[in-house]
Amino acid sequence: MSKPMLAMAALAALLLASASAAQPATEGDGATPRAAMREFLTACRAGDYGEAARYLDLRHLSPARREDAGPALARRFKAVLDRTLWVELEALSDSADGDLEDGLAPERERVGSLRAAGAPAVDVLLERHAGEPSWQIAASTLDAVPALAEALGIDWIEERLPAFWVETRFLELALWQWVGLPALLLAALLVAWLANLALSLVASRLAARTEQPYDDLVVSAARGPVRLLLTVLAFRLGQGFLALALPVDRALAALANALLVLGTAWLTLRSVDVAATFLRHRWQASGRPGAVGLVPLGRRVAKVFLGAIAVIAVLQNLGVNVTGILAGLGVGGLAVALAAQKTVENLFGGVTLAADRPVRVGDFCRFGDRVGTIEEIGLRSTRVRTLDRTVVTVPNSEFSALALENFAERDRIWFRTVLGLRYETTADQLRHVLASLTQLLRDDPRVDPDPARVRFVGFGAFSLDLEVFAYIRTRDFGEFLRIREELLLAIMDTVAASGSSFAFPSQTIYTATDDGLDEEKARRAIEEVRAQRSKG
Q1: How far is C-alpha 184 from the chain's CA centre?
Q2: Those residues with Cβ within 8 angstroms of residue 252's Cβ, 6 or more apart along the chain or in another chain
Q3: How confident is the model at residue 482 (pLDDT cuts 50, 70, 90)?
Q4: How many CB atoms lie within 10 A of CB 287?
Q5: Strands 464-472 and 413-421
Q6: pLDDT, mean of residues 423-452
Q7: How far apart are CA 372 and CA 65, in angstroms?
């Protein structure tokens, strides 16, 4: 069992023990190790340290000395026990002979170990002496109590307080400890408030020196979580001075750890808000509205994920076994993922489009065998306005898998045309046209000279073919259409100035007199074939 769970169980046991301690302690016999420790603890919780001293081995003291030193030693031993060891009564033997298989002498029983910083560990031993039916706490254990009490600071505190504040107890805590807990909490709140105020002033002054507004948001968002973290840390630092009983100390430690986790999670969630604000403003400034639309979803997903981790961490610090919870979440998450497979695919497709940015809202693109302008990239689908002015909605999982051709990303636009000149055009005329068109392209500043070329590429079915190849220095397709129109008109003028013209589909028919077949040549060919055949 984990320590936090043990602490909770110990607190429950304290409630039961306090109820039984409210009744007057009855005289017991301590015939078994379990009975001896139970009766000692019951007497101490009832404040009857004289009765509790009956279960201490004080044989080395004189009878008169036992009456004075016994109750004081019982009280000190109980205080040390509260700080260092929670006695599991059920783990002790309920046999009059004790546990004979624990490796110890038959007359000796081990309860546990007392540990304190600066002092060696001491075993709590029960002994039964010959001729006596009762088990008692061994003298070797009691001899170490003064050193342990000094190491734990118990004497320093209780010797300076009136007996009423020390001897009045409830749930294993003295009256001064009950008063000290709220006082420590108030002191921790005050210290945390002052420290947080000082840190905020310093951070605000540092943030004011920068031009970015986001550091101011960070300072504002961190005030509440940092105050909580400082309060918990201050309380934990002062908790040691209260000398609390071990189960109470462990329970408060588990609660403090849970609050530290919650404070850290609170700070992280506020950091997610600041990061989301930063990304939204940055993507808006850079013209990425599609990515801006994913910011709220990303923020919610991050918060849910971090919140789930925080809840699991808190439960673990409180002693809850989270293995079963994680297994259940894993099975449930798998079921949800299988049921919402298409939705998850579309979601990740939208994330891919926002991250890779193959297209953006307003871009004219080709997707598959269609073209259109991107109007919206949503969480589930992408909307495209086609040339027919219709809207096509494509799921993100399919859209991101298509081959996307983004025309808006062109740095130049390709200008290419093939000219067909008449076959009557002479070679010199053709050279004149090639030189003139090349010069036309090079003289136009809107045409990129590299590469800009005009070449005679072949003999067509009814024309001499020339290829004009160049790039126009523009990204605006409307401007490209205007420049292309001007270039085509200039090409027409150039061809006309050379004395040639453009060809069109035509056929040329030649007429002549037919002389028929040559009978003499035909006769000689036949005779030659017959001669070769006769020779085999």
Answers
A1: 35
A2: 239, 244
A3: very high
A4: 12
A5: antiparallel
A6: 91
A7: 103
pLDDT of residue 174: 72
Structure tokens at 437: 């068109």
Query: How many Cα atoms sit within 13 Å of 402 on the Cβ side?
Result: 20
Locate the DSSP E strands across 387-463.
Answer: 391-395, 404-406, 413-421, 447-459
Token pair, residue 132, equals 């006596």
Q: What is the pLDDT of residue 173?
A: 72
Which of the 8 DSSP states describes residue 448?
A: E
Burial label for 298, CB within 10 Å (0-12, 13-18, 19+), is middle
**Sign of the C-alpha dihedral computed for residues 30, 36, 38 and 41 taken in this order:** positive
Q: Are 291 and 282 in contact (CB under 8 A)?
A: no
Beta strands 370-377 and 364-367: pairing type?
Answer: antiparallel
Q: What is the pLDDT of residues 142-186, one digit of tens each?
A: 888 877 777 776 656 666 666 666 666 676 677 777 887 888 889
Judged on CB neighbours under 10 Å (0-12, 13-18, 19+), 517 is exposed
pLDDT reported for residue 391: 92
CA distance linking residue 377 with residue 360, whole number of Å: 8
| C-alpha span between 364 and 330 (Å, rounded) | 43
Pairing of strands 381-386, 169-170: unpaired
Q: CA–CA separation, 78 vs 44, rounded Å? A: 7
Inter-residue contact 56 to 77 (CB < 8 Å): yes
What is residue 19's predicted lDDT score, i.e. its pLDDT?
Answer: 43
> Is 52 within 8 Å of 74 (Cβ atoms)?
yes
Report the 10 Å Cβ neighbour count for 78: 21
pLDDT tens, position by position, 372-418: 998 888 777 889 999 889 999 998 888 888 888 888 888 899 999 99
Both tokens of residue 309? 């981790």
* Tokens 């000219």 found at: 419
Sheet holding 447-459, edge to edge: 413-421, 464-472, 447-459
* 126 in Cβ contact with 135 (< 8 Å): yes
CA distance 475 to 477: 6
Query: Quick check: 25 pLDDT over 50?
Result: no
Count other Cβ atoms within 10 Å, centred on residue 376: 15
Cβ atoms 139, 57 nearer than 8 A = yes
pLDDT band, residue 205 (cuts 50/70/90)? confident
Query: What residues does 174 pair with on adjacent strands?
Result: 169
Which residue, 397, 383, 400, 293, is CA-closest to 343? 397
DSSP for 259-309 reads: HHHHHHHHHHHHHHHHHHHHHHHHHHHTT-HHHHHHHHHHHHHHHHHHHHH
What is 311-324 written as a DSSP string?
A: HHHHHHHTT---HH
**Is residue 164 a contact partner of residue 6, using CB atoms and an 8 Å limit?**
no
Cα first-last separation, the chain: 114
Report the alpha-carbon angle 474-478-484, nearest 5: 70
φ, ψ at 18 (rounded to 5°)? -65, -35
